[in-house]
Amino acid sequence: MTIRATDKLITVIIYTLFSLFALICIYPFYSIIINTISANDISARGEIVFYPKQIHFQNYIDVFKIPGLGDAALISLARTVIGTSLTVGASAFLGFMFSQTDMWGRKFWYRFTVITMFFNAGIIPWYLTMRSLHLTNNFLAYILPTIVAPFFIILVKTFVESTPKELQQAASIDGAGTMTIFFRVMLPICKPILATVAIFAAVDQWNAFQDTLLLMTDSNLYSLQFILYNYINQASSLSTMVNLQNAGSTTIASLATKQTTTSIRMTVTIIVVAPILLVYPVFQRFFVKGIMIGAVKG
C-alpha cells in the first residue's frame, strides 16, 4: 500500500470515528425531541427509538400552560444576560489591569483573586454571608457573586500578555491613558477570549440551580432550572393537572396527546436546554481560538 493510500485510509478511519462519536453525543437530544413530538401513549411505552410517530406539538402548548414556567424563563433569561455581561466586563478589565506592570499592588491583588479558586469556606458560611448581605429572596443574589470569576480573569490576562506589547506602547507614546488603551486598543483585540468567557458564563448562569435552592423561597424568583427540578419530581401530578385542563375544553385529549409523566419530563427538558444550545453557533468561530490562546502563554 502506498503512502498516499495509507493517508487516505487513516483519514477515512478518523472521520468515521469522529462521526460515530458525534452521533453518540447528538442522539440523546434527538431522542428526547422525537419523543416530545410523538404520540404520548407510544412514547410512554418506549417505542420511539429512531423516528417520531404520529407527530404533534400539543406537548409544548400544554407545558407552557403550567403555572410559573413563563416567569421562571424570564428570571433565567435576565440572570443569564445581565450576569454574563457583567462577568465578561469585569473579567476583561481585571484581566487587562493584572497584565499591567505599573498597577499598584498588582501581584498582591492578582494572588488575592486567584487564591479564591483553591479555598472555599463551604455552603453554610456562604449562606450566612449571603443572608447577612440581604441577598436572600433578592435577584441580585444571582448576579453579584458571579461578577468576579478568577478563572475567566486568568484566561483574559494570559490572552492580553500574548499580544504584542508594542500595541500598548505605541498608544501610550501617542498620549493614550490606561482606560483609553483598554477600550480603544485591547478590547477589540480580546474578542475571541471574551466570546469564550461569554459562553462559559452564560452556560453557568443558565444552568445554575443551587443558589435558587438555598436562597430563594419566593416563587417569583425561581429559575428555570429549579422549576425543571420540581417539574421532573412532580411530573405525574403535573400530567394529571394538564389533562384535567384539557378535559374541560370542548375536545377531550386523545391518547396520542394525553400528557404522561414521560411527555412532561422530556418536553420541559427540551424547553430548558434548547435556548442555551443556541449560544454556541453564535460564538463558535471565536471559541477555539480564544480558549487555546487564553489557556497557553506564548
Describe the structure.
Helix 1 (3-36) packs across helix 14, helix 4 crosses helix 12 (224-233) and helix 7 packs across helix 15 (279-295). The chain has one domain: MetI-like fold, CATH 1.10.3720.10. Residues 248-253 and 294-298 have low confidence and may be disordered. The chain is an all-alpha fold and 298 residues long. It has helices at 3-36, 40-44, 58-63, 69-97, 106-114, 123-132, 150-162, 165-173, 178-189, 191-207, 210-215, 224-233, 235-247, 261-277, 279-295. The two termini are 41 Å apart.
Mean of the pLDDT scores?
78
Main beta-sheet annotation: none
Q: State the CATH class.
A: Mainly Alpha
Helix count?
15
Number of domains: 1
- Order of SSEs: HHHHHHHHHHHHHHH
Helical residue percent?
A: 55-70%
User: What shape does the CA trace take?
Assistant: flat
Report Rg: 25 Å
Oligomer: single chain
